[in-house]
C-alpha cells in the first residue's frame, strides 16, 4: 500500500507541473464557457446566398462512420439547396485535436468539430468556439431533453459548452457461464471492489497441473477506469469541484480512494486472480471474449460486439464502487460537437447549429444508439419503438440505462475539466503498472520482468470497437526507442 501511495503521490507532483504549464488560452480563475457568445439567429441562413457548406471533422470509423454518414445524408437531403454538411474523417481523437490546433494557427478551422470528452477544457481555453448554450439562449431552445448526467459533463458554470453526441459509460461485464460453473449467481454481481476481489478468487480456475486457465478478473490498464472509480466514490479528481466552478489548478486524487484503487488492482494481479494484459485494449477484450477472464471492465460501446462474439452468456452489471458506502456514480465518456466562431460566417455557424439540433433529436439519437451502441443523449430516444426493440434484443444494455438514471448529477460525476487529462491518464496507468509482478492470460507466456506492463505496452494507437476508445497495438521493433521504456499518452474515452 505504501509503495503504491508513494507512486501515486509522485505522479501527482508531476501532474501539478503539467497542469501549471499545460493549459492553453485563458489563464483566469473561472471555469468559463470558452469562445464567443455571438450566436447568430435563423435569419443568418435567410440572408446567405447559395448553399452554406459546413465542414465537419470527426473521428468515427467502421460501422459508426457508416451510421454517421447516413445521418449526414439524411440532413443534407432535408436541407437541399440551403445547407450541405461535408463530413471529413480526421483520424483518432488525439490526431484530430492535433490537426485542430494546427488549423487554429493557420486560421482554417472547420465549422464543426467532434472532440473527445477529455479535450473539453482545451476547447474552452482555445476560445475558438461559440458555446451551445449561446445558440439555445438565442432561440429559446430547451435543453431539457438532454440526459442530465451527459449535459452535466459538457457544462461549465452551469452553461452547456458543446453539444453532446456520442456518449458511452463503463460497465462490469460478466461471463455468466463461469459464474454458474463456480456455483455463483450472476444475478448477484459484486457491488464494490472488496466484493469483486472475493468473487475473482472464486472464479479463478486452475488445471490439474496448477496452471491458471481462467482468471477471475481482467481489464486493460487504463486511466479512464480509475477516473470512473473515483467518480463512483463521490470524490474529486481535480480541485475547484473538478474544474466545474473555477478553473482546475491541480489534481487531487492522492486521497485514500486513489491509493486504494491502485493497490487493489495490483494485489489482484500479484495474487494471480487478475489477468495482466497491460495497456493493450484489444488484448483485454480478447481475454474476455475467449473466456479466459470471468469479470471485465469496459465501455457500453463494446456490448453488441461482445454478445455477438462470445460463446458464453454475457451479463452486465453496474460499474463497481470503491466501497459499499460510496454515494457517487459513473462519469460520461465519448465526445461532443463544437461550433467554430472566428473566421466563420454567421451562416456557417447557424448551419452547424441546425445540424447539431438534428443529430441530437430523439429519432436520430435512437438510430445512433441502435446502430452503434452509444448511449442516446436525448432522453426521449429510449421511448422510440425501434430503440425499445433494440434494448429488448440486447437486455444487457438496460443495465447502462438504469445506472445512468440512478446517478445524481454532481461535480464528482461530471468528471474533471483539466487541460492535461491525457497526461494524467498516462500517469495513472504508470502508477498501476509499478507495484506488482505480472500475471498473463493462459494463452500468453509470463513476462520475465516483475512488472504489470510488458514490452507490448510500447505501442502505437489504433482503434477498438468503440471509437471513443483508442487501443494499443505493438509498434514495429525498429520504431521502438532504445534505452528507457516510454509509454505514449493514451488519448481516449471511454
In short:
The chain is an alpha/beta fold and 494 residues long. The chain has helices at 2-22, 43-47, 62-78, 93-105, 120-126, 132-139, 148-153, 176-181, 193-203, 223-233, 239-243, 256-271, 281-289, 303-309, 346-359, 362-372, 385-393, 398-406, 411-414, 421-433, and strands spanning 52-58, 83-89, 112-116, 129-130, 155-156, 159-160, 163-168, 170-175, 205-206, 212-218, 274-275, 293-299, 314-318, 333-340, 459-463, 470-474. Helix content is 41%, strand content 16%.
Q: Keyphrases for this structure?
A:
single chain, 494 residues, alpha/beta, six-stranded mixed β-sheet, 20 helices, 16% strand, disordered C terminus
Write the layout of secondary structure elements.
Layout: H1 2-22, H2 43-47, E1 52-58, H3 62-78, E2 83-89, H4 93-105, E3 112-116, H5 120-126, E4 129-130, H6 132-139, H7 148-153, E5 155-156, E6 159-160, E7 163-168, E8 170-175, H8 176-181, H9 193-203, E9 205-206, E10 212-218, H10 223-233, H11 239-243, H12 256-271, E11 274-275, H13 281-289, E12 293-299, H14 303-309, E13 314-318, E14 333-340, H15 346-359, H16 362-372, H17 385-393, H18 398-406, H19 411-414, H20 421-433, E15 459-463, E16 470-474
Parallel strand pairs: 1-2, 1-3, 10-11, 10-12
Antiparallel strand pairs: 3-14, 4-14, 5-6, 7-14, 8-12, 8-13, 9-10, 15-16
